């Protein structure tokens, strides 16, 4: 079930991010990941429009939007392949006419998901903090 994020969801959201990010971003340093985790908690969650997926009373995934940008889409990897990520993006599509997202080129899981959904690459650049290739993707809601 999708519902709006509440402040008491923060630890569950971070747990989903921890598990999914470890799987999708093994190429990122622990130091970098720890910094991102702190930013999610203290900066991004308070300023984004976040929806969570709740299963049996527990938050297991989320999508965060900042304007048209998907700032984060993460789901407990044990639940990958069940349509939950798609449902979260479908939900975001009900709120926006188009969606943008940036994904590391080395994030095979994320790139595959977004490609299957119908996002198309619009830009490639270097991520300034890691010097890794970053792809910008767009989806226009039909």
Topology of helices and strands:
Elements: E1 2-4, H1 10-24, H2 30-47, E2 49-55, E3 58-66, E4 69-75, H3 84-93, E5 98-104, H4 108-117, E6 120-126, E7 133-140
The whole-number mean of residue pLDDT values reads 96
Distance between the termini: 23 Å
The strand count comes to: 7
The helix content, as a percent range, equals 25-40%
Number of domains: 1
Backbone shape: globular
Uncertain regions: pLDDT < 50 for 5+ in a row?
none
Q: What would you report as the Rg, rounded to the nearest angstrom? A: 14 Å
Order of helices and strands: EHHEEEHEHEE
Would you tell me which CATH topology applies? Aminopeptidase
Structural class: alpha+beta
Tell me what the structure shows.
This protein is of the alpha+beta class and 142 residues long. The protein has a single domain, classed as Aminopeptidase. The protein is built from 4 helices and 7 strands, in the order βααβββαβαββ. A 7-stranded mixed β-sheet has the order 1-2-3-4-5-7-6, with helices on both faces. β3 and β4 (69-75) form a beta hairpin. The protein is globular.
């Amino acid at each position: 079930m999708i519902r709006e994020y509440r402040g008491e969801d923060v630890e569950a959201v971070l747990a989903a991010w921890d598990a999914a990010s470890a799987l999708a971003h093994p190429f990122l340093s622990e130091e970098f990941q720890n910094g991102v985790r702190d930013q999610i908690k203290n900066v991004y969650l308070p300023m984004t429009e976040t929806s969570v997926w709740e299963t049996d009373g527990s938050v297991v995934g989320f999508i965060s939007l900042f304007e048209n940008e998907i700032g984060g889409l993460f789901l407990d990897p044990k639940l990958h392949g069940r349509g939950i990520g798609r449902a979260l993006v479908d939900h975001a599509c009900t709120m926006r006419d188009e969606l943008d997202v940036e994904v590391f080129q080395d994030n095979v899981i994320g790139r595959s998901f977004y490609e299957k959904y119908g996002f198309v690459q619009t830009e490639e650049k270097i991520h300034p903090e890691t010097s890794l290739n970053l792809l910008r993707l767009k989806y226009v809601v039909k």
